[in-house]
User: What shape does this take?
Amino acid sequence: MISTIQRIKSPENPKRLLSLLPILGRHLLVVGMMVATTGILFVFRSSMNTSTVALLYLLPVLLCTMLWGLSAGLAAGLLAFLTFNYFFIQPYYTFKVNHTQDITALVIFFLVAVLISQLVGRAKRNLTEAKAREQELSSLYGISSSLAGVNDQVEIANLIATQVRDIFQAQGVEIEVWPVMDEQSLSVLVPQERGSLAGDPAYVIPLETSRGVCGEIRLWRQIPSASATEKRMLEAIAAQGALALERAALTRAETRAEVLEESDRMKSVLLSSVSHELRTPLSIIKASATSLLSAEVEWDTEARLDLLNALDEEADHLNQLVGNLLDMSRIEAGALEPNRQWNLLSEIVSVALERMKRALERYRVEVDISEELPFIPVDFMQMERVFINLISNSTKYAPRGTTICIKAWVHDRESLLVQLTNQSPPVPEEHLDSIFEKFHRVTDADRVSGTGLGLSICKGIIEAHGGRIWAENLAGGFAFNLQIPLTWNGRPASIVEAENG
Amino acid sequence: MKKESSILVIDDEPQILRALKTILTAKRFQVSTASTGEEGLAIAAGTQPDVIILDLGLPDISGIEVCAHLREWSQVPIIVLSVRDEEKDKVRALDEGADDYLVKPFGIEELLARIRVALRHSAQVKGTSEPVVHAGDLEIDLARRVVRRKGEEVKLTATEFNLLAYLASNAGRVLTHRNLLEKVWGIEYIENVEYLRVFMSQLRKKLEQDPRQPRHLLSDPGVGYRFSSDD
Assistant: This one.
């Protein structure tokens, strides 16, 4: 399954030699230990018989195997066999052996030494392997648990790339994911700069899912060859990664389907709400126009004027409805791009108030917005619409003759706060957030006119500007709060000095 | 009695053409109509109308292009008609040389007011402009660079006066941000809308009865500013 592409490397002899050094050192230590043992035993040679010496010789052999592995153990066994023979079996200082009994002892000694070192060596190797396996398993477990619950492709790719880099001590890891369904392809690189990753990657591992190969992991590192364990690990990680990516794609597809379904439902609600709303002004227009056209009735001047005013007002009403629909569809399509300019809030609010003059005749309006406030980077017309919608909402719910108040102040270096308060009845706390949702109405639809789009448009516009809108109940009233950014591309407005004079 | 002014209406909606023709004829204008940009350009060249009313959303060439073509040979006042989702086009048309704009749907009084301003302005371009502009209790003497409010002189800085003078000599017409910035500050300042905001706010403080509800120095959201000499 793993296709590895070996990087072509020039042979590096000095490195080879370096890696031999520890082996040489180990065997020198073995020799050292055997010399020391022989020295100690030699001192007590007269007081010990050969079988005791043989048993004692087994100790360093055992020790060497445990400390430095099988080959060191075997070397120690061989050395022990030779020195035992040379120093402790008569005749001394030759390798000759006189008694057959001694020959048997020597052979058995040698066999025991070899057997012990093999047994101990194997146990040691098993232990090392078990530890490596455990390490491997825990790494894999770590990866799989960190991938669980992540549904973002980029995040998954990043997680895998980082893990692979850490486990394999790689210089760099790149993960490329090709589009499986209708999402976009992506590429993740750890570290983020390609700088040091010259040439082809050392390994390329495909990410395979049930739908076929969906991408690959590319790995750059100094050590050119990978051990069997490492290959197995890479394979396992690639399989897990592919699985996680596939799962993420499926989850997203499912979410998309749900969103589509929901948006379909919303569209039907919108259509029915809109048709209902359009019918009212249309009925009035139709009734007024046909009345004026009618040859049967003679209208006096005042009645004529009433009918004509109704025509005019309802046409405006229709226009506003259509405007709201247009805004809503732009917000829905994510096409509401604010045409930002540095603006003065005081100017925007005064234009909005002028526009809403007719509706505000029955209210007291207080405005406390200093012209000294810093400029805000906003779309004048969109912000004007926000205030028109908020004022329009206030005039629908606040009793006539009450006060509508707009004030603003600098919140911090980053933002301005605007508060519009009115004296409408409180909204139940659980509805405070949902009033900004489409078609949400706290009161009965028949009592208050409108499509239920006004506040959701405000929210859409404010959020497109990077701001925030929320509502709260006050003692004796209700407030809309807006947080509007003061910076544009991270920079605040320059200060324009008016001339003196 | 002076000669009737002629108006060319270019719009692709037959209902709009019908309504405007009826209304404007009743208001004693000579009205010709065109339903495409090319046709409009041909009629404009043939009949030399006094005012052109131009819809921005035409089926063949865009209203902005019609504006640009007209401006190659004619200074005829152009009033563009736009709808709400053409906000950027509207400003572009004005920067291309259109004189004013109206957003559909509009009241006919508004249209007539725009036509009157356009006719007055083209008369001024041909003849000499009035040296003193009166607007409510304001009196702006363009030649002597003096502004009086209720008979008392108001001190303005040089830039404030230049801005006011440019707006007042185009009374009734919308002037785009770019246009104002270029004429008053210079071409290198056309992006610095914040200059305009500050100086307009200064002018309002000095000249308006209630700076929060200006009567003469009006904001045209998203487009520019307009000086109104009505009281």
Q: What stands out?
A: Chain B touches chain A through 30 residues (CB under 8 Å). The CA atoms of residues 51 and 115 of chain B lie 7 Å apart. The radius of gyration of chain B is 18 Å. The mean pLDDT of chain B is 90.
